[in-house]
Amino acid sequence: MFQNPLSFKGRIRRLEYGLTMVIYLCMEIVIVIADDILEMPGLIIMPYIGIFYFGCSQGAKRCHDLGKSGWWQIVPLYSLWMLFQDGEPGTNDYGRNPKESNFRQDDRTVLDYKDFV
Predict the structure, then answer these.
(1) Dihedral, CA atoms, 87, 68, 108, 101, nearest 10 degrees?
(2) Nearest to residue 26, comparing CAs of 59, 54, 61?
(3) Nearest residue to 7 via CA among 48, 46, 64
(4) What integer pLDDT is reported at residue 101 of this predicted model?
(5) Is 103 in a helix, a strand, or coil?
(6) Which of 30, 64, 31 has the alpha carbon at shortest distance from 46?
(7) Which residues are listed as membrane-spanning (predicted)?
(8) Helix 14-38 crosses helix 41-65 at what angle (to 10 degrees)?
(9) Entry pTM
(10) Chain centroid offset of residue 11 CA
(11) Which of 3, 22, 27, 68 could form a disulfide with 72 if both were Cys (CB 3.0 to 4.6 A apart)?
């Protein structure tokens, strides 16, 4: 779980996505509280960008598990659908099913510099 959390490639299960959303919400609350206390919006933007990137990458992988493009996560309320919809069985265009018992953790795609170019 949480192998290559900043990569947009691969698939994740509902549990990992749900935990991601809990982490995202908690960090969002911390950032809002810190913003109120510090009153320095320029300082708060950097952690927010990091948390936003983390949430988007995990959301894209959850979309991939459903057989959809990562862009589907921008549809309003689709993130709730991703929490409850079971992923596609077997291998799809985005990789192997993370539920399969023969799925090895090292089979996941490793994030490298080409993902940012």
Answers:
(1) 20
(2) 54
(3) 64
(4) 58
(5) coil
(6) 31
(7) 15-34, 40-56
(8) 170
(9) 0.75
(10) 10
(11) 68
